C-alpha cells in the first residue's frame, strides 16, 4: 500500500486539474500491458504501471529522482506552498528493494511519466517484516508500537519527532536496527512521549504543529527528568540565526536538510559517546561519596538531580525498606523515569545505584575502628551480614574485614 500510495501521490501532485492518473495492475497470470516500456518476463511478478498526463520530468533529471531530498520540479509546478520533501520516491525505491523488486521511470511522448514497480510475491512475503517497519505510521503519523524483544532491550531508544510521514519514514530507515524507535507526530506529543519514556536521544524537526522544535527543546532541557537527553534539531533552514536559536534552547546538534544517512549516524554516535563519558564521571567513587568531592561552581541539572537522589538515600540509609519504589515517591518520578535517568547518567539501574551509595558509605564508616562490621552493615541498611559482605566484595574486590585490615 505504501508503494502505491507514494506513486499515486506523486502523480496527482504534478498533474494539472482535469488531467488523468492511471494505475494498471498485472498479475503473474496476466500479460504485461501492450504499452509497457519494459521488455521483461511477467511470470512471477506483480506489475504496477502508474501513468499521468502531468508535466513530466525533464530527461536530464530522470537519473536523480530516486535520490533522497531531490526535487525535480520547480516551485511553481506544485499545487501548494512547501508541498513535498523530495524523499517520497526514495522511500518507494527502498520499499521495492526490500521486496526484491525493481522500479524505473521513463517518459512517453505526450503521456507524462510512467513508474513501474515489479516484485516477486514470494520475495515480498519473505521480506514483510522489514517492509512493515516503513508501514507502521498511522494516519496521524504516529508509529504504532511493536513488541519489544530481548535483543531490542540492549539497544538505545531514539525518539523521532516529525509531523511529515515521509521524513519520519526516512529517519526510521536510517536508524532502524541500531535503535529502538518511537515516533511522535508533533511537538506536544514529542514532549509528552519524552517525559513518559525518557529516551536515550531525540531528533526533532523545527517546524511542527502545536509545539515547534524550539519549544520542545526548551521544555525538555529545563525539566530535570529529561534535561540529560541529547537533542538533534532537524530543519530546512540552514541560516546561522536558526542554528543559534536552536543551540540557545539547548540543542546538542543541528542537522540541516538535505543530510546524508552517514552524517546522521555519526552525529548520534558522537552524542551517545559523550553521554558515556558522563557516565564515567557520575559512577566514580568520588561522586558516589559527594561529601568528599569538590563542589561544582555551577552545578548542572544532572549534578543537582544526582545529589538529591544521594541525599534522599543517605537520609534513609539505615532503613532496609529504602528501595526503588520509595525513592520514586521521594523524587516524584515514575519508576520508568527514575530508572531511565539514572541508567543514562550512571550506567546503573536505580536498585544498583542505591546499593552503591550504601556500600560507599559503608566503606567510609569502616574507617572508624569504634564501629563493628555488623554495626556498619545495619547502619547502611543491610539486613544481613552475609548479604553485606557479599555485596561489598562484589563492588570493591575484598571483604569488609580485609578492607579494614588494609587500613591498619
Question: Secondary-structure blueprint of this entry?
Answer:
Elements: H1 2-13, E1 21-23, E2 46-47, E3 50-52, H2 88-98, E4 102-107, E5 113-119, H3 121-126, H4 128-134, H5 150-153, E6 157-161, H6 165-175, E7 180-184, H7 187-197, E8 201-205, H8 213-222, E9 231-235, H9 240-248, E10 253-256, H10 261-282, H11 285-288, H12 301-315, H13 324-331, H14 335-346, H15 350-365, H16 373-379, H17 385-396, H18 400-407
Parallel strand pairs: 6-7, 6-8, 8-9, 9-10
Antiparallel strand pairs: 1-3, 2-5, 3-5, 4-5
What this model shows, in words?
With 408 residues, the chain is an alpha/beta fold. It has three domains: 126 residues, Histidine kinase-like ATPase, C-terminal domain (Heat Shock Protein 90, 2-Layer Sandwich), CATH 3.30.565; 144 residues, Rossmann fold (3-Layer(aba) Sandwich); 123 residues, Arc Repressor Mutant, subunit A (Orthogonal Bundle). 45% of the residues lie in helices and 11% in strands. The protein has 18 helices and ten strands. The strands form two sheets. Strands 1, 2, 3, 4 and 5 form a five-stranded antiparallel β-sheet that branches. Strand 9, helix 9 and strand 10 form a beta-alpha-beta unit. Helix 1 runs antiparallel to helix 2, helix 7 packs parallel to helix 8 and helix 15 packs across helix 17. The N and C termini lie far apart (75 Å). About 12% of the residues have low confidence.
Brief digest:
This protein is α/β, with parallel strands linked by helices and 408 residues long. The chain contains 18 helices and ten strands.
